[in-house]
Every structure is written in C-alpha cells, then in structure tokens.
UniProtKB/TrEMBL annotation:
PANTHER family: NADP-DEPENDENT MANNITOL DEHYDROGENASE (PTHR42898:SF6), TROPINONE REDUCTASE (PTHR42898). Pfam families: adh_short_C2. Transmembrane segments: none annotated. Keywords: Oxidoreductase. It comes from Rufibacter roseus. This is SDR family oxidoreductase.
Length: 257
C-alpha cells in the first residue's frame, strides 16, 4: 500500500507540448513512474522521435501530432483518448509560448495567438476531458503556469495574463470538480533551462539579474518542474487540490535581499 502511494502504475496521462523542455521532462517522469503517456505536439518528427526513444526503453509512450490551440485538433485528441483508453487519469496542460514586447507594441494577432495557445487550449481541454477524468475516479489536472502569472517580469504582459488566468482556472475547477473525484493544481516555474528561456538567458547581464533575484542562485532544470507535477498526480497528494506550487528557487518569496 505504501508503495502504491508513490507511483502511477496503470494511470493514463496526456501531456501537451510533450516533446521538449518541461513537457518532455514531465512525460518522462510520468512514464518512469509507471503511467501510460500520450504526448501531443505540432511537429511530427519531434513527436515520433520522442515516442520511439521512450518505447525503446520499454516505456508505454504514444504520441499525436496536433495543435491544441485549434478546436478541431482538440476534438480529435479527445476522440483518440476515448478510442484508446476510454478514460483519462492525468491531464497536464503544459503547452505555451511567449512574445516579449512592451504592452503597447502587441498586434491583435499576437494577442489572440498567445491567448489561444496558452489559455484557451487549457480551458477547452479541461472541459473536453472532464467526463474521462470523472470516469477515472482519481482524475488529476496539472496546469503549467509561470511566476510571470504571479508578478511582473519586465516584458511579456500577455504571457503573464494567460499564466495568471491558469492559476485562477485551477482554483475554480478544483472546487467545482472536487465531488467528481478530480483534483486540479498548478505549478509556476521561474527560469528553467528550456529552449524558450535560453533565448534570453544567453544575455549574460540578463542571466545575472535573474540569478540575483533567486535565493538559490541557480537556474532550474525541467526535471525540477516534472518532479512537482508528478507528485501532485500521485495518491500521496490525494488531499492537495486548488494549489499553485512555485518551482522557482525561492524567487517569489524574495521580497528584498
């Protein structure tokens, strides 16, 4: 019984944006803990490569090429889950992107793109997945937000808006779906060594400023976020819902230092 509290044997999980960075690390963590994991991403080559590598190691991975910002692709994804599993135990809304500009510089198309990719995809997938998560009787949703949704981080106001909304979405769904046996939580990473973050961390002055605000004086790794996500999905976390865990080396509590 004790061991079952700390693994995900027999669970079925969907991870969006699961081919690189935080998404790939989350998928790998869940796979290593015994889950069957379906990853979804837009690039066929990346999906096929990731799934092939995991299967070669005996892990129960599968993949689908889709853009979850698009309604038709979301419905096709849910149809695949229905045909394959008939239930869903874990939904990780990880997919997201950023455009770093001052708020007055965004175009309407950029605004809509960021909202559809970061927020609408998560909102709609939660709604579409609800019957399957309820059928699981031990359903879990983890939304990957950001510390940019908890405070100001120089540029990327629309990104921050979408990530803040994901925190609130998690709280609302946690209360609304609790009696359906579904827990909903959120993680909020700080700078993590991913392709998206490396674009700005290549600037040494910027990287030094990031480290100066971080009590641990380190940049996080994707595995740091994956561990938090996996824990929230485990039976050991059965009484945790509606929470947002900052994975940030202490940055969000560093008011003055």
């Amino acid at each position: 019984m004790q061991n079952n509290r700390w693994n995900l044997e027999g669970r079925c999980a969907l991870v969006t944006g699961g081919t690189k960075g935080i998404g790939a690390a989350i998928a790998e963590e869940l796979l290593n803990l015994g889950a069957d994991v379906l990853i979804v991403a837009r690039k066929e080559l990346e999906v096929n490569q990731a799934v092939t590598e995991w299967r070669a190691r005996g892990l129960n991975a599968s993949g689908m090429v889709a853009d979850v910002s698009q309604p038709a692709d979301r419905h096709n994804l849910i149809q695949l889950i229905e045909n394959t599993w008939g239930k869903l135990d874990i939904l990780v809304n990880n997919v997201g992107t950023n455009i770093r500009k001052k708020i007055g510089e965004y175009t309407p198309d950029e605004y809509n793109y960021l909202l559809q990719t970061n927020l609408t995809s998560a909102f709609e997938l939660c709604r579409l997945a609800h019957p399957f998560l309820k059928n699981s009787k031990q359903g879990n949703v983890v939304n990957v937000s950001s510390v940019a949704g908890l405070g100001h981080v120089r540029t990327g106001a629309i990104y921050g808006m979408t990530k803040a909304a994901m925190v609130q979405l998690s709280k609302n769904l946690a209360a609304e779906w609790a009696l359906d046996g579904i827990r909903v939580n959120c993680v909020a990473p700080w700078y993590i060594r991913t392709p998206l973050a490396e674009q700005v961390l290549q600037n040494q002055e910027y990287a030094d400023a990031v480290l100066s605000r971080t009590p641990t004086r380190t940049i996080g790794n994707p595995e740091d976020v994956a561990g938090a996500v996996a824990f929230l999905c485990m039976p050991a976390a059965a009484y945790i819902t509606g929470q947002c865990i900052a994975v940030d080396g202490g940055m969000s509590i560093n008011l003055f230092g």
